[in-house]
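Contributing new records

If you add data, match the layout below exactly. Sequence lines come first and carry their own label; structure lines follow with theirs. Keep one chain per record. Anything else will be rejected by the validation script.
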Amino acid sequence: MSWWEAAILGLVQGLTEFLPVSSSGHLVLGKHILGVETDPGYGIIFEVLVHFGTAMSIVVVYRIELIRLMVGFFTAAVRPSRYSTSWEENDDFRTSIYILFTMIPTGIVYVLFKDRLEALFSDPRATATMLIGTGILLLLTRLRKNPDGPMNPVKSLAIGLAQAFAMIPGISRSGSTICTAIYLNVEPRRAADFSFLMLLPVVLGATILKIGNFLSATSSNGYSEALGPLILGTFVAFVSGILAIKIVLRFIREGRLHFFAFYCFAAGGVGLILL
């Protein structure tokens, strides 16, 4: 993978991770259009690291909220006798637990279907079809008028299941989780914030799992010269991710999330025609 290819794919990842248009789908289609061919192991590591770059953009944008969540969680953790009180009175503690709940279905689906899911990344036509599916998910949010409800454990598990479903390339992670929360009557801005924050433990966990494999393969497979493009792609994803978060929050605030559906229909349709 060349430097300019890494920069373009990093930009695609950073923008589409938070815009509800499927980052994995765009990476699959982008690699196919650019003619990027890499060792399968290297390709997976690239995707993990650019996802890590976008995760760091969440840390920057939500740094104050993350501090509150960690303080709320660890304050309750060191005082288990006050757990029930913390649950009732501390919204930050409840939110941190809800985020942990989302990891349950995501982890189960990944363990059971890991190989099948990774195989889908080599099928651009299936990815284009799933992009159209993402468009339908977004458009259906118009049926839920003025959602204003809170989060709860059942809703968080359902949103975690939506995140697991989004491991299929072409299904937007942010789109499916935000839409699911809105379908369940969660207030849209809270749905978006929760969707972005729940990405952190998943991406950090995937990075830890994959980075060891990459470092061991670097010496044996001659990947050392490819470290530069990896770093560049990760940095571009980080910077563009910050911009994408702000764009999505603006569309959420203006009630225009469904506008992204038309882009998904167009991108999926063009992908099916060209591929």
